[in-house]
Sequence to fold (304 residues):
Amino acid sequence: MKFLKSITIITLFFCITNLMSQRHQKDKKLKSTETITKEYLFNRESLDNILVVDNVYGSIDVKGYNGKTIKVEVVKTISADTQKDLQTGKEEIGIKSVKKNDAVYVYLDSPYSHFDLKTGQFDHREFSFNYRRNYKHRSKRMYKYRLDFKIKVPKNASIDIKAVNNGNITVENVHGKLLVVHNINGAINMKNVSGKTDVNALNKDITITYAKNPTEESFYNSLNGDINIKFQKDLNASITYKTMNGEFYTNFDVIKTAPELKATKEYKNKKTKYKVDSKKHFKIGNGNVHLHFNQLNGDAIVKK
Fold:
């Protein structure tokens, strides 16, 4: 009886070990890493020069410097279960670029992506309902990928930077006319920047430190994250703030202002009704520049 029990225990041990080994082999993916380096020049020296970057999986790190060349380094990582799928990913994923007028566009190149030079719009169809519905007519992607960007840009150039998944966006020492930074599932961190600003982080925090306060209307949007902004102490701004579950905090002296009245006409009775704006309105300093804060669940922290 003891002998049979020992045989059973040994057999069970080897079965468990074999299953664990199979699971380990299944979880262990093949991986390829490649570094891509590119350099670009704007067509001319202009205050309207802008770098536009569109990424889907991965991070984007942008730093301004005193040079004239845009320097781009991209780490491309592909992972798959088989060598064939790995090779497919290596061949299908990359970056492309194009110049038009004062803009340099750098974007993900993949079977699921499309760039329209006429409009300057980048479209990634992998997440669309129509694409998923027609998956049976396409070869399903059997690999994972990410592109991690490190970019040096002339510090006075404008930027339009967008990412979607698995990466944060950082911007440092950029002082262009326009700073557009959008990230869906990653954070946004901007340090020592200046310019008209349009930032949107859907699910993570936004952190900005200004070297010079915005002089044009700017927008700060987040659905589920906090917005943390450090302005210079001479801020003069009219602020509108809209939220459902968050609060607005500041160490600036503020003056509450009246909400806007929006006229709506009723043609049947030939009357005009006025709707009170639901946003909070207040002023810092003389209120020269309009700053918009839109949130759902996070707090806004504005400090000097």
